[in-house]
Amino acid sequence: MNPSVIPDFDKPLQRDATDAAKYGARSQVFGTAKVQPLWVADMDLPVAPFLQDALVKRVNHPCYGYTLQSSALKEAVQWWMREEHAVCLDSDSVLFSPSVVTTMSNAIAAFTRVGEGVALFSPVYERFYSVIRQQKRTVVNIPLLNEQNRYYLDLAVFEQACKAGKISMLLFCNPQNPGGRVWERQELTEVVRLCRKYTVLLFADEIHSDIIYLPNRHTSLLTISGSEKNTVLAHSIGKTFNCSGLEPSFVLIADATLRKRFAAAAQRTHTADINLLAKTAIQSLFSPKGQQYKIALVEYLRKNRDLLADQIDLFKGIDMMLPQATFLAWLDFRGTGLSHEQVRKKLITDAGIGLADGLVYGDNGEGWFRLNFAVCHEELTTAIAKLERVFSE
Ligand SMILES: Cc1ncc(COP(=O)(O)O)c(C=O)c1O
């Protein structure tokens, strides 16, 4: 293994003194800083050493002035999307954004009017709700179906809501957070068909699409025929390469008319530019070396996922939805017979671990908590031992 490409994932990272949200906001969220933080969706694993070198090289040049969205930057994005996701687009289709959430907010402003319905499939990443509400649109909540601990889309209910004229836009999480579901091509084809039939703008949040566990394969919505007419796709190097603090996101819109409307909204919020270091990072990571890092990372995460799943299986009353993607494990505590609040207290006070509270993902997150297993092996075994001590009593 080349150490300039793949770091030692086993070495514990000290993040306490780095202003990491996951660490610094613990007292506010859990009422105590004495919890092992397994909530915010970033990784306690090091970035690629060659990325650090590229950033240091750029920082060593003594000027950080305004920067251009160069053709090399766009080519890097085009290359990654073609190589990794079979998405082939021209360079005009590539735009930049500080974050996926910013893109979502601009897209809602661009393609819907105040009061209109924006649909989501719940449970889902909490900002889906807040962005819709902040823009004074209406959340149309379509609960996912949980069949044998696996989520499915309720497309019949979605179609009814479309038919009733309640939906102008769909925020679609592909793959899904918090359940880690990798949607099948046939499911996505149906989503695209319904959105086109009922003139619903499709927002594809594909931020988790690089961390996929075989034999599952990610299908980008932009590879579904017809989607290019009504889809805005948002992605980022934030999750894959642990760079969210650089605000390094991008947007793909194939249709020129949609693109124009989106770009106008992004300009109104002054969020159409890219951070200088984000640009350096994207160009460095969307490369063959970046692919090697990603493969090694996914393998490390897969071992963590499997270890966690095997252990959770031994605890009475807790079930884990095995994620097909993401470094997030969706844990169902309903079998413990405890209330949501009782589980929450037990996790914080007795076990000393800080998980993401399932209720933030929707009402159907009651009894569920999300555990981020993107930590070194030692940290994960510590967390498992804590869970075991409290939940196998
Ligand atoms: C599905 C999903 N979308 C978006 C985000 C946030 O991305 P960004 O930091 O680029 O806004 C997250 C973060 O957890 C996420 O899980």
* Proportion of beta-strand residues: 15-25%
- What are the bound molecules? pyridoxal-5'-phosphate
| Order of strands across the main sheet | 2-10-9-8-7-3-4
Rg measurement, Å: 21 Å
Bulk shape:
globular
- CATH topology of the largest domain: the name is Aspartate Aminotransferase, domain 2
Number of helices: 13
Order of helices and strands: HHEHHEHEHEEEHEHEEEHHHEEHEEH
Taking the sheet with the most strands, its summary is: 7 strands, mixed
- How many structural units, i.e. domains? 2
**What is the top-level CATH class of the largest domain?**
Alpha Beta
Structural class: alpha/beta
Report the end-to-end length measured between terminal Cα atoms: 43 Å
The residue fraction in helices comes out at: 25-40%
Uncertain segments of ≥5 residues (pLDDT<50)? none
What is the mean predicted local confidence, pLDDT? 97
CATH architecture of the largest domain: 3-Layer(aba) Sandwich
Q: Kindly report the name of the CATH homologous superfamily of the largest domain.
A: Type I PLP-dependent aspartate aminotransferase-like (Major domain)
Q: Give the number of DSSP strands.
A: 14
